[in-house]
Specification:
The protein is α/β, with parallel strands linked by helices and about 400 residues long. Helices cover about 45% and strands about 10% of the residues. The protein is built from 14 helices and ten strands. Helix 7 packs across helix 9 and helix 11 runs parallel beside helix 12. The protein is globular.
């Protein structure tokens, strides 16, 4: 590549390639960065640059790697990337810094937490450090977690309530509805046999209508969440959804988390932050024990939805787990198996167990937070789930 001063588009392309490739002869751009570009390049180099065997390279154009173990230096770097990059990019760089440079321990310092860009993955990291967190840091950590929880609630709560309220109303069908309560879609399908070709019309011999909203509990939902380390993002979203569901009078919601032990956090559902700080991320997995607890809490099987959120790596008794799922479904329970509840797609998961659940009529799939209200609406109405 050669710089072409007369062509501003070529100059911009060279600048972008230089930012991507880094410095040195290998980049081939011959471009020297200055000002804001140089500062951005330095921030990227601290995280993604290579560390030569002989130590950091010197010079105005060379990248050198590392943030070292200095909290002030890391705090400055966190401030720099928030200045130079948009929030989604900052969140990715923070995750990479925690994974590549081992910065998790530094998050135990309040000054560090005040410098970070809050996001779901950062919350997962903080929750995994919860037990090691000094008291001086916990208040700041709770503030970070609450910021993320409020962002998630703002994004998802209203749509979730609207979607599920509609599903609950539609699930309460009446056979003699008033005109404005008629469910025309289902009425037409139920009366297709009464189609009169000569008049090109359907005679609605049987009307199907929506039931009127009721203050009584119509459905029971049990969220059963795997709190192993790989499920951190799912736990954050599930806790928020649990609080939203619990706020709806017509749904009785129970929140159960598990590793090798089972903890019922239903009494903390009012505040998702309390739920999250009640978790112990990591450890083993005993899905069978968790489902046994949930099964014992079911009082109205035909009106109950059980949502298992897990990567299905079972450390308990596999056959017993599958028997419990089969027994619940036979009793009329709607069983939903989610491999993840996050924007990241399907994680590594136990394919054998997923196949076995599908054979029982409970397909296991990854679900985004935006799709979750539709999945729950289908489960409440006993419709086929919108599997991606």
């Amino acid at each position: 590549m050669t710089a072409t001063g007369a062509d501003p588009h070529a100059e911009e392309r060279l600048r972008r390639w230089r930012m991507v490739l880094g410095a040195g002869e290998a980049d081939g751009t011959g471009r020297v960065l200055a000002g804001r570009d140089a500062a951005m390049d330095g921030a990227l180099a601290a995280l993604y640059g290579e560390q030569p065997a002989g130590g950091p390279r010197k010079g105005s154009g060379d990248r050198s790697a590392g943030l070292g173990g200095s909290a002030p230096r890391v705090a400055r770097w966190l401030g720099d990337i928030r200045t130079y990059f948009p929030a989604p990019v900052v969140q990715v760089m923070q995750r990479d810094a925690i994974a590549r440079l081992g910065l998790a321990a530094l998050l135990l310092e309040p000054e560090m937490l005040e410098a970070v860009e809050p996001d779901v993955h950062l919350v997962g990291t903080l929750l995994s450090l919860n037990k090691a967190m000094p008291e001086t840091t916990k208040q700041t950590a709770r503030a970070v977690v609450r910021t993320v929880v409020e962002q998630v609630e703002k994004r998802l709560a209203a749509r979730t309530r609207a979607t599920l309220t509609g599903a609950l109303d539609r699930s309460a069908r009446v056979s003699r509805p008033r005109h404005h309560d008629i469910d025309w879609d289902r009425t037409i399908r139920a009366n297709l046999k009464n189609y009169l070709p000569e008049h090109r019309t359907v005679v609605p011999e049987r009307l199907i209508g929506y039931g009127r909203a009721s203050r009584s509990v119509k459905k029971e939902v049990i969220l059963c969440i795997d709190q192993s380390g790989s499920m951190a993002a799912s736990v954050v979203y599930a806790s928020v959804f649990g609080a939203v569901l619990a706020s709806m009078r017509s749904i009785a919601t129970r929140l159960v988390v598990f590793d090798t032990a089972v903890v019922d956090l239903t009494d903390q559902l009012e505040d998702p932050v309390d739920v999250l700080f009640g978790l112990q991320l990591g450890g083993g997995t005993d899905i069978n024990r968790a489902l046994a607890y949930c099964q014992a809490k079911i009082t109205r099987p035909a009106d109950t939805v059980v949502v298992l959120i897990s990567d299905l790596y079972e450390g308990g008794i596999r056959n017993e787990m599958l028997k419990r799922v089969a027994a619940m479904k036979s009793a009329g329970v709607e069983f939903v198996a989610l491999l993840a509840l996050s924007d990241e797609g399907a994680p590594a998961y136990d394919r054998e167990h997923a196949t076995a659940l599908a054979a029982l009529g409970a397909p296991a799939f990854a679900c985004t937070p935006d799709l979750f209200p539709d999945v729950m609406a289908a489960a409440l109405e006993k419709r086929p789930l919108p599997v991606p």
